[in-house]
Design goal:
Elements: H1 30-40, H2 47-54, H3 58-79, E1 107-111, E2 114-118, H4 124-138
Helix pairs in contact: 1-3, 2-3
Length: about 140
């Protein structure tokens, strides 16, 4: 008959291991994740050091960074979905320069199959927004 205390060596000695540190399967709030990710985005910061300080696996931090980057890209793309792209202007209408445009050369930008004509004095922020919207709608 076998004894319950018998082990492979027959000595009856059992090894007990005490685990210290944080338990497994911790749940992190979105605020904590954002705080950790923002800490890793600072110039000169090493992700592994931040992960060690927060007692998180570095791969977990990289996963959070990737997820937040994709979420931000999706929000930016959704914010720019309102801009329609016209592939070509009708050939029957002659091109006119509006009366409010100062005389001078007009810059023509072709991006992703769209043509954007930029008159002198156009606001740089408006132009940047338009170019980003055209590029985002082409993808």
């Amino acid at each position: 008959m076998d004894d319950v205390r018998d082990d492979a060596k027959g000595s009856g000695y059992r090894r007990i291991e005490v685990l210290t540190g944080p338990g497994r399967r911790r749940t992190w709030s979105d605020d904590d994740k954002a705080r950790i990710v923002s800490e890793t985005l600072q110039p000169g910061v090493v992700v592994t050091e931040v992960a060690r300080r927060w007692q998180v696996c570095p791969q977990q931090v990289f996963g959070w960074r990737r997820k937040m980057r994709l979420e931000m890209a999706g929000e930016a793309r959704a914010a720019m979905d309102f801009v329609p792209i016209v592939s070509a202007a009708p050939a029957a209408t002659p091109e006119r320069v509006p009366s409010w445009v100062a005389p001078g050369p007009i810059i023509e930008v072709k991006v992703a199959g769209a043509v954007l004509r930029v008159p002198p004095g156009t606001d740089a922020d408006l132009l940047t927004t338009l170019l980003r919207a055209i590029r985002a709608s082409a993808t």
